[in-house]
Each structure stands twice: as structure tokens, then as C-alpha cells.
Amino acid sequence: HLPPPTPVSTSWVPRPSRSGQVKGSCRRARGAGAGQSGMESQSYAQGTLIWIKHEEEVWMQAEIVTSNDKEIIVKTAEDPNSRIVLGPHEPIFLRTSDVFTSEGLSVLDDLCQLTHLHEPAVLSSLQNRFDIDKIYTFTGPILIALNPFKSIPGLYDEEVLKSFMTTKPSSKPHVFNTSNSTYRGICDRKKSQTVLISGESGAGKTETTKFVMKFLALAGSSNGEVTNVEKQVLESNPLLEAFGNARTLRNDNSSRFGKFIELQFRGQSQDAVQLGMTGENCRLCGARIQTYLLEKVRVCDQQEGERNYHLFYEACAAAASLSGTSDYQFPQKLSKDKVKQEMTVNLEGFQELSNFTYMTRSTCKTLKDVDDIEMFERRINAMLTIGIAEHDMIQVLRMVAAVLHMGNVKFDAPPGNSEGSMAMSECEASMEMASKLAGVDRKALESALCSQTRVTRTERIK
Question: What is the SS3 assignment for 404?
């Protein structure tokens, strides 16, 4: 957060300050209000470059034509022949002229290096960097990331990642640089480190988390060779996304839950650990992930244009590709040399999306440039890599299918009991399939869905 500028007014031609305000030596008044240019005695030299408020662009570049105690007349680059009259208390901020080099517009890697440190200068600097695909910017120790909503070639290549694996700090803003600072803090100072990734929906928190984990996993591997531990840590992401990520109106892969990821490292040599030797690399030895606040209501209902959780669509797409069988031969989309093992995945209970009530709340069924069948195979491979047994994996899928079939069940009051509930006869097939998949008695399942049990100190009331 940047501190609001302290307005200053003076009765003579000002010189710019660090915050883009006015400084002088006579009749200087503070406290005119955050973001305002000053008091009535404020005056500016002709040709002074400033920022002024704009309804659509938020801030717009302008140049002062004349100014006095009562008004300031400016012209803009968009329409230099017209004039805009500003009142003495309207917010304006000083700006610097753009600097061009042989590579084009000069942009700063750190916002702290700005001549004028205020809102329009910060936003303009970020916009200029964004326009040339420089989405990372430092502001002191904080890394600002702007979601480009596109793939930028070469930004996250393995060569780029390895270039940041160094014991010397880098001044280049990049998520790998921040990740390396974290890793060196663990290795050199023997202190636990925290990376806090925050932002609004669609800002890119999920993808940034993946890049941080990828860097730390590779940095903590043995001589760059990824072992089973690193693979299991990395494959936890696609597995969590299958059950906890969904398409929203702002993001195709929005995490609908919070998570705290703890990566555990150990020193390669006991002597180095005791001495705190700089340059020593620690090995990744384990991880722990805590999840919380899952948006459970999304399973039952979604806004128009959004989707349910990814796994529902992916499993249904894989089942719909089969003909006359529920056994899916894994893999079909992925290369066999890239999966842990081949297996037969039983998809009993999964059908076309249109057969399930929970999958027809929204007309959005697919994602752009995403193959649901291929993603389903990635989820299966993630479960195998992490170490989930085949039997347990099949049981997980059966529970997912059971949820879809329970969503098709409709309820009505039984004859003579307006306050009771029972499954409608037209939903018998769904009740039978749900109970079969869940491995429970059909009547017991209906009873659990249609009645409540209250527990007192002495009895259970159903």
C-alpha cells in the first residue's frame, strides 16, 4: 500500500517533490486533503506535465496552459486544441516525460525508483510494462504480478527457471526470483520462509502458486533430477484443482477453496546445517497441504456462464467416449511413457452431462482450448503419482458419480403426512444407482435423505 500524498500549496512556481506534489519556501500549507493539488494560492508554470482525473481512463496525461488562484487550464495529448478548465481543488499530480531508448519506452523494474510516487505514476508504470509483456514489477520486497490472460513465450521455460537458481540476488522482477529468495533464506539462514500470494478473483494466484512450487521442487532436487518426492509435490496441484477448481465469470480455473502449503526441506550435510554455510542447497523431503472453506454449494448450483467442479465434466466426458462399456483404458490421450502405469478405470455411473441435474444449471459445458478427457487422464496420473491405490481411486470416482445421481432425486410428501418426505417413484433408477455406487442399502439412503435425527441427552429422535 502506498501512503497518500500530503498536499502542499505555495504562492510561487513550484518544483516537484518525491510524491509529485508542490514544494516551495513561502506560505506553504499542508492538509488540503489527500490527492488534492493545494489551496487557492497554488500556481504552476506553463508547460508543466500533470495527471488529471478521467472518467474512463481513471487518470489522463495533460499539460498546463495557464494557471492562477481560481482555475487551471490544461490541454491533453488526445485533443491538444481543446482546453479543460480545472478548479483549484481538483486532484492533479505532476508527471515526468516518457524516456525512450534503443529498445523502446524505458520502464522501471521497481516502482520505488519512480520520480513521483503516487497513484497515477504507479498505474502508468504498470500499464507500460504490461503493454510489452513485462507482467512482473517490484515495489521494494513485494512482487506485483499482472495476469496477461495469455501465454507469454519463454517466460517460464526451464532455462529461465534455472537461470534464477543462484546464490546471488537478482534485481529482475520475476516469480522465480522471489522463489529463489525464499529458497536461499531456507538454505543460508536456516529460517522458515513464507510466501503470501494474494489478489482478487482472476488475478493469477493459482498459477503463481504452481510456479513457486515448481521452482522450489526443482531447486530442492538432487542435481536437478526430480525424484518421486518432487513429483508427488507437483502432482498435488492438478489433483486439488480437479475437486476444488471451477470456471467462474472471471476465471476458467478459479480455486474455490483456500489452501496452506508447507514444503519441508533438510540440509544435505549435517556440518553445513550446524555451521549455516552460505551456498549450501537443501533437499525437498516432504510436504503438507491444508485446505479450508470449500465452496460446497457450487456442487448443487452455479450461475449462468459458470461451471461445476472440473472433475464432474472430465469424468463424464471420458465415460461418454466409451461405447457399450464402463471400463476406460488408461491412458488414451497421454503418452504411455509419461504416465506412472497403465490401468483400467471403471466409470460406472457416469453418463452424458445432460443426464444430470447438477450439470445443467448453466449452459457452459466446456472450456476454451481444454480437452476434458485429457485433463481426466492427468487427474488419474496425479492420483497414481501421489500414491493413491487403484481400489481407493475407483471408490473416489464412485462417490463422485453417486453425488451426481443423488442430484437427480426429487422429493415429495408421502400420502397423509404433509410434513414428511419421500423420494418420488420417477427417480427410482437414480436412487438405485446412487445407493449401489455408495455401497449402502437403498432404503437406508432414502431414510438418511428424507429424515433428520436429533440427539438429546437421553435419546435419539428421528
Answer: helix
